[in-house]
């Protein structure tokens, strides 16, 4: 401004001077730049700001108008559930939102909590994570019933947890259970919404919640109390878990699927299959399938009173 003009090359390090039109080429010599009068610059910048503000106000006005129209539609549709009940199905994205919703449901719970916990042995970190909610429920006299897989019996953390909870919690186990389910007072349920369990569904629709409660009740009647031993298979040398694996093999499932359904690792599953093959005298998977059928392990679980003799290791007959 003081010198009146500037060589174009000197403006290279500060391109914003040209972009903001604070400098412009000298009409008499294009190798030089001359400053734009300050009043002109200020007027142009203020006009640009005014245009931006006007455009923003217009967008806000349009949004308000559209929302008022949308809100007016509410008078033409059936009444929604009371606000306190929330939507019938809500997607919870992220562990923080899931935990917050669980804490809210815990605070509102007054009667019972039903849970299905798949995945085998429960890690102590998982049990500790929900311990504060369980203790709060116990303090209010809420009863809890938990379903686990039989594999969970081998985890010491679960028994420590149940000891802390006392008679407020009753636990039973099954060969395999459905995916995770937590049901509060038979009014709100939580189920996973993706395989990673980083998303969940909060269900408040009465029909859905009642259906899940019925599923739980039927599984509960089939389950074995954690304090009771697992029934004997009736076949010498074959454990209850191996009997379950045999039935799933007979259905045609792969090792990984069987392991997931029973809550064990694939390595453990294959070790049981190897022992099962040895006990039944099978040298191939195909022969193992035949032996399983011959021993009656491909059908429903049998009581301890029913027994089959094992095939002779040296022949293909079942005695």
UniProtKB/TrEMBL annotation:
Transmembrane segments: none
Gene Ontology MF term list: DNA binding
One Pfam family named in its UniProt record: GerE
Domain HTH luxR-type residues, every copy: 231-296
Gene3D superfamilies noted in UniProt: Winged helix-like DNA-binding domain superfamily/Winged helix DNA-binding domain
Residues in the signal sequence: none
Top-rank taxon: Bacteria
Protein's GO biological process: regulation of DNA-templated transcription
Entry keyword annotation includes DNA-binding: yes
UniProt xrefs under PROSITE patterns: HTH_LUXR_2
Keywords of the record: DNA-binding
PANTHER family: HTH-TYPE TRANSCRIPTIONAL REGULATOR TRMBL2 (PTHR34293:SF1)
Protein name, UniProt field: DNA-binding CsgD family transcriptional regulator
Provenance organism: Streptomyces griseoloalbus
């Amino acid at each position: 401004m003081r010198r009146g003009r500037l060589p174009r090359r000197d403006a290279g390090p500060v391109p914003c001077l040209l972009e903001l039109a604070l400098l412009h080429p000298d009409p008499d010599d294009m190798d030089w730049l001359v400053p734009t009068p300050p009043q002109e610059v200020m007027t142009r910048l203020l006009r640009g700001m005014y245009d931006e503000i006007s455009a923003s106000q217009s967008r806000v006005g349009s949004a308000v108008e559209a929302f008022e129209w949308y809100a007016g539609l509410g008078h033409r549709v059936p009444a929604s559930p009371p606000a306190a009940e929330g939507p019938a199905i809500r997607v919870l994205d992220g562990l923080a939102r899931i935990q917050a919703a669980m804490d809210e449901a815990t605070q509102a719970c007054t009667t019972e909590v039903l849970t299905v916990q798949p995945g085998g042995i429960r890690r102590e970190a998982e049990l500790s994570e929900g311990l504060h909610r369980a203790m709060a429920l116990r303090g209010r006299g809420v009863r809890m019933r938990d379903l686990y897989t039989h594999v969970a019996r081998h985890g010491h953390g679960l028994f420590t947890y149940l000891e802390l909870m006392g008679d407020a919690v009753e636990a039973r186990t099954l060969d395999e259970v459905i995916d995770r389910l937590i049901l509060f007072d038979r009014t709100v349920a939580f189920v996973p919404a993706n395989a990673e369990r980083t998303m969940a569904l909060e269900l408040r629709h009465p029909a859905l919640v009642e259906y899940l409660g019925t599923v739980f009740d039927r599984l509960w009647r089939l389950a074995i109390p954690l304090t009771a031993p697992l029934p004997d298979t009736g076949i010498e040398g074959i454990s209850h878990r191996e009997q379950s694996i045999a039935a799933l093999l007979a259905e045609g499932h792969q090792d990984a699927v069987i392991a997931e359904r029973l809550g064990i690792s694939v390595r453990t599953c294959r070790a049981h299959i190897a022992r099962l093959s040895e006990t039944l005298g099978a040298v191939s998977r195909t022969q193992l399938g035949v032996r399983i059928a011959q021993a009656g392990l491909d059908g429903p679980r049998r009581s301890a009173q029913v027994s089959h003799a094992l095939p002779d290791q040296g022949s293909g007959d079942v005695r």
